[in-house]
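Go through this one:
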Amino acid sequence: RKMASWGRLSVALVAVVATCVAAGASAGEISTSRPFLIDSQVMDMQWVNSTHKDAKPHDKVVFVRSARGSIYRSVDDGLNWVSQRDKIADDDEEAFQSRIQKMLFSKADPKYGVMLGYADLSWYTKDQGNSYDRHTFGALVEMKLHPTNPDWVLASKYEGEFPARYLSLFVSVDFGKSWKKLVSNVFQFEWADPNAKGRKDKTIYACVRKQDSQPKKSFASWDPNIDFVVSHDFFATSEVVVEHGNRFAVHTPYWFVAAMNPEEELEVKMWVSSDGGSTYHSSHFPYQLSERSYRVVDSKEGSVFVQVTHSQRDMMFANVYLSGEDGRMYSLTLRHVVKDFKGMSDFERVNGVDGVYVANTADTEAEPHLTLAGGLQAILGGGQVDGMVPTKTKITFDKGGMWSPLKAPEKDSRGHSIACDSKCSLHLNGKTSRRFGPVYSSPTSTGLIMATGNVGKHLHARGDEVNTYFSRDAGRTWEEILKGSYIYEYGDHGALMVLADNTKATREVIYSWNEGLNWTHFEFWDHQVEVENIITEPSGASQIFIVYGRRHDKGVLMQLNFETLHERRCLGSNAPGSDASDYEEWTPSDELRSGKCLLGKKTTYTRRKRAARCFNGRDYDRKESSYACACARTDFECDFGYQLNSKKACERVPDMPLAGFGAPEDCSGYFTITRGYRKVPGD
């Protein structure tokens, strides 16, 4: 979900505010709640039953955690809020004793939730916050709820005396009432999927240091004495799955393990399982380069995009590789992808349409002009700034097979022509830019993308050059919809777009029922708020939004309900394209091939016509149909050990070892060799 916040952290404490009441709305007007003030800015917001089949439209339970660790709860989609302090804190307790560091809610039963405290206390609820049980078991560092049994919980906490402290893993089978120690010197842990092959309810994966081995001085460094292990019986027994496995990540159905090279402490090797953790194989990359760190950036449609850092000097850039279906053999898809010091990269999947991705890359042919101010701003702010290495935006419609620049719009939002030559294109801000809105799409808003950026040779960070852009065809064409940078959200399956200025304090939002053809300004309060985000329930089907931000040193929460506008219900979904229908058919396509095909198939979606002033409704079921297309060059990418040359053909990687390309040692009869191409996974 889109939960990034732009701005400084507020730490002032304010009095608990009583629940708010809805502001009156006349027929045909937006209904708003009275602004609700919290003690500091919003850090986390979670809908805990938005997928419940028996949940009523306006009975969504929403929890908010503030920067000061306070919890607030709404049972009506954010219309009214109640501080949870009276439920979880005793009258004689200091405020810090009831601060919450994390909210967790069970996938097995959304009524179960845990408020993980900073101190010795944590709070457990089995009724979505109507009541809490408080249990003391020391300061817990991390907690994992079981995927199918809501009463089972894993947690880690420190034991021993500083500086020889270590993390131990504990299990509770009665939802936090009592705990049993499982293993010491644990660094990471996770429940397995009990429905996967060979897994049980008690199966746990963890990174554990070997017994009697000496710990490394720095936790952040790789340690050869740590192994990736599995236990099927709460660690009565365990076995090593990947030796020297220091870290792991789960992207269902894939499991990834980073194993240290004991001969070179800065090098790691990635192991992967494509069957839910049952079997593991080492991954292979086509270049003889050291692999220092990995980050899985996408694992949809039967393949994996992995971001690899090859050098400690690559603080701001990384290469992105794409795997085959088993996640083992990787080919280079994009060089020099922009990332921040935390490893977050500007590599974004376009949700709702298969195979489309947007990324920012360093322009290595341009002359960088490094400045001290620019370097400090990039490090502290985490984004690209003028004076640093120039950045360009690229898009792919075939899952990384080919990348191309974004087409610049012909006119701006005021109808003026945009001058753009062959070296000019549209560039968009990604997640590493914390000052401006990032590329954003929603699975239920098929083909729609909003972003901020600029037209030119490179991406700029000057506020006077940043504008807000929109695409309704999954990135093939773009238009400028507003001057300046905005934060945005979709509602009603993409039929409603709501935006707010996120560069300065404002008292209004701007909304559109026709995908930006017309905009309406709505003043939501008499006072100005620094809007940090606009968000709706995860399904994206609602017309109810929560706007949150800051006013002075306080956080602000407010609900905007567009259902009271009484727009009519859209008609004619069974006859899209007809004059009487509010719907049309749309087929995404790859601009590099003839015919409307994408990833080897022609998929047609039914969606609302742009100019139709109506709403889809929560129960709208988008229709789609697809059939296979004849194979073309764009359905294939370079196989392992091959790369694109200047003629866009796949050729052998220089100095690539011959292992795997000739006859196998146990050859008898026929064997297969590659011609340098493989079909794009998911095609």
Notes: The chain is about 0% helix and 35% strand. Residues 3-27, 369-387 have pLDDT under 50 and may be disordered.
